[in-house]
Specification:
Number of domains of chain A: 3
Oligomer: homodimer
Shape of chain A: globular
Strand content of chain A: 5-15%
CATH topology of the largest domain in chain A: Aspartate Aminotransferase, domain 2
CATH superfamily of the largest domain in chain A: Type I PLP-dependent aspartate aminotransferase-like (Major domain)
Number of strands of chain A: 16
Strand order of the largest sheet of chain A: 4-11-10-9-8-5-6-7
Largest sheet of chain A: 8 strands, mixed
CATH architecture of the largest domain in chain A: 3-Layer(aba) Sandwich
Radius of gyration of chain A: 25 Å
CATH class of the largest domain in chain A: Alpha Beta
Chain lengths: 481, 481
């Protein structure tokens, strides 16, 4: 090992990361080989001219990554493993450090939430329908219909099943999108894949996306992984503050606006009709294309708004939607609707990355439309979600009145709770976990949302809502900071 | 428009592309606006100091891309369209030109093949089972079983259904992979997605992948789009020439080897057992991880080989496989098997890009395994594919004996035909199309394969095989060059 090495103490890259990089580069160069023993921690601290705790930090992470091995008797040795090195080469944590350390600070919480997602916890913030919403009867009808209809199961064409896209045209016309045909529709494997395709297909590296602040995409890595920057625009009770868009575009040089205008994630807010007009007008003036994330559309409790796309004369809007939030998450079926040349390009890209969405899921969706099963299912889901919203608001009123404020969503899943005083969300998250409750802290949707929690009435049962909110209220009140 | 502009005539970027870039940059800067008229072609030729045909080329493409509009009376005008500009900003054709013009010359052919793929043509080179191989009875049994078993349809956990991964463990043990558990398996949406995940998840931009020359991946954009370079290693009748690997790695600084050791695409060649040992030994010595593309495995006509992964003591091999080639293409279901830390990382990435493979497809696959339907289906497919191989070889013998040579594959789909003399594959492709035959020219698998054609006995019927080969033989013989 090349021991004459000086760390750069002025660098944004933390010292323990610099030490890790130095060790790895020595393994790569072959200076350190399988079984080689590293100097003791004390010696390393001296060599690198850092505290011993910095060395411990550096070594611990390399051990957890299978690059080093700690044998109490022999000290720390090299566990030379080609895959470990390879898999850690572009480790995202490291990359984020390399990018000055301020990149995606909430990543760890999101990962923790994903990890706990399959555990037996009460998911009071989960963005998913619980099994209580599963329609066994509808699934049976679909499967029976598929038995008759499926006579092959081959690769679909690039934009997805033509029959399905025809059926979707009818649906889009019903929600107000008149200027539609199957060539303007791409079937994708869920709305998240839609964003992945858009991020790698039509956005350049280092371009910027305007979004609501907070926004679902802040908790996603899909744009960040494509090196697309996010620039947030504030919201009020009627959605994104449209008058801020012009300035934001000028400052950020953004090339797209991403919005969830209906039952916004995480706030539950909808853009009202007056502001929808304003939004379209401003974006038309600025020639700023819009991604309209319309995934929660069908979960309205009052008279529904039309999508932005319905008023979009200049094909400025790319609308994404999906079956995941409204009926069957596991179908992994969504769509992108918009200008044909963009749809063509994204379709070409989709063929390159997975050669199309499951034909089985597409067939299931065809049966769902053809057998007129969707309306009945959605009527039931809307009714039940509305009941659960009312119940959650009632319980909030009982236990959160003195410690927080919140909104009353007219559809979708989410209630955005703002605590009256500053407490550590991280600590609250941990304390809730100890009580078997998984919460979604507000700061994963924007780092400034340190007093917020996203609640959802889509997943937890009535009993679980009562228990969780009662417990959280207590935890919040006894938490010091 | 800024008319004082000098094209760089020494650049690798073709002049007509430079003109296009200049026009677009003027639109972006706002110097050219919607409806503005361009100077006449003659004037432009003078301004840019090029032939008029170069101007025509430049304008034609911008018109086809919806950026310009040609109105006979008014000349060429700007059709200012935000999406057009955006979608063409990172247009891949342009990018490839910008990268010195030698990048992926076969792209157009691949795109043409994809476009014609859904037309009513004889696909004599298609890598897909025809509808004749569809097992209606098996699909019915599966759908019946699903009716009983599906009690929810939610997001699966990151690596895919645990039940399915357990069933796959049994399967992997049967083919010789002993050291396996569900945590080492990731369910993906087909083997192509496996490559997409690997390319963006564990390979750095500008890293290099060793591959067989020719190789399926040369016709794919999945690695190229992730800025991964390909470096080819020659093959003989027993597969990749192992003794060339060491030097290739040194020269190319490659970080992975991608191989299709069994029923190679496009050549149909398999690596024999002796050479499998050599390959593993060399890669172990070089610490060169292997991606083993095992998609055609189950389509053997003789006693099967074990996968490389079965002999892989050091977890050097990442094996990919899928249901697509052996039974149901439209299921879009495949897997990656390998070292757990890599599988973890790829699973995390998969959640980021599409939140998991269709639960419906996964359930179908569970039924397929649990009801023991796979063996019967594969026995039938192997038998029929073998018959069709024999038939194709017979017809080749009748019509190609004097004009080409070819191999005799022991499984899979492909026969790799080498023509005895140089003719233009492009011309042959076009002439074949006129006769309703879609061929796969060899040069899409490596630019040097200018005398080759990939034939497949998986898709065309017996009659179509006869007609195509008879016709192609005639076309080849009458073609001048």
């Amino acid at each position: 090992m090349d021991i004459i090495y000086k760390l750069d103490k002025t660098s944004d890259i933390p010292l323990y990361i610099q030490i890790q990089n130095h060790i790895i580069s020595n393994i790569k160069k072959g200076n350190l080989k399988n079984g080689d023993k590293l100097p003791s921690q004390r010696e390393l601290a001296k060599l690198y001219d850092v505290n011993r705790s910095t060395v411990v930090n550096a070594l611990d992470e390399l051990i957890s990554k299978d690059i080093l091995e700690s044998k109490t008797k022999r000290g720390t040795t090299i566990k030379d493993d080609t895959w470990s090195i390879l898999s850690n080469q572009n480790n995202l944590n490291w990359m984020s450090f390399a990018k000055s350390g301020s990149f995606y600070p909430n990543l760890n919480t999101v990962r923790t939430i994903n990890e706990y997602d399959n555990k037996n916890l009460i998911k009071i913030g989960a963005g998913e329908l619980s099994d209580d919403f599963f329609k066994k009867d509808i699934m049976e009808t679909i499967l029976n219909d598929m038995k008759v209809n499926i006579n092959s199961l081959k690769y679909e064409n690039a934009k997805g099943s033509y029959e399905l896209r025809l059926l979707l045209c009818d649906y889009f016309k019903k929600i107000g999108i008149k200027n539609i045909n199957p060539d303007k529709i791409l079937i994708v494997s869920g709305a998240l894949q839609a964003l992945h395709l858009i991020s790698i297909g039509i956005l350049n590296r280092n371009s910027t996306l305007l979004t609501e602040m907070p926004s679902y995409v802040n908790s996603l890595r899909v744009f960040q992984s494509a090196d697309v920057n996010l620039y947030g625009i504030k919201m009020d009770e009627n959605g994104i503050i449209t008058k801020d868009i012009k300035k934001a575009k000028r400052i950020s040089k953004a090339s797209l606006l991403y919005t969830i205008p209906y039952f916004h994630n995480p706030t539950g807010v909808s853009i009202n009709e007056k502001r929808r007009d304003e939004l379209l007008k401003i974006c038309n003036d600025l020639k700023l294309p819009i991604i309209e994330d319309d995934t929660y559309r069908e979960l309205y409790f009052d008279k529904p708004y039309k999508p932005l796309k319905a008023y979009d004369k200049n094909d400025l809007v790319l609308l994404t939607g999906s079956m995941s939030k409204i009926l069957f998450p596991g179908l992994r079926l969504g769509w992108i609707v918009g200008k044909e040349i963009i749809i063509d390009k994204l379709a070409d890209l989709k063929m390159q990355i997975d050669y199309g969405t499951s034909s089985l899921s597409q067939e299931a969706c065809i049966s769902l439309f053809k057998k007129n099963l969707l309306k009945k299912a959605l009527d039931e889901n809307r009714k039940e979600l509305k009941n659960k919203r009312d119940y959650m608001l009632k319980i909030l009123n009982m236990y959160f009145k003195d410690i927080a404020s919140w909104n009353r969503p007219n559809g979708g899943y989410y209630i955005w709770v703002k605590l009256n005083r500053n407490i550590s969300l991280k600590k609250l998250f941990d304390n809730a976990l100890k009580n078997h409750i998984l919460i979604h802290p507000g700061d994963i949707y924007h780092h400034s949302m340190k007093n917020h929690i996203r609640l959802s009435y889509s997943h937890a049962s009535y009993e679980e809502i009562l228990y969780s909110l009662k417990t959280l209220s207590k935890l919040i009140q006894i938490q010091n900071h």
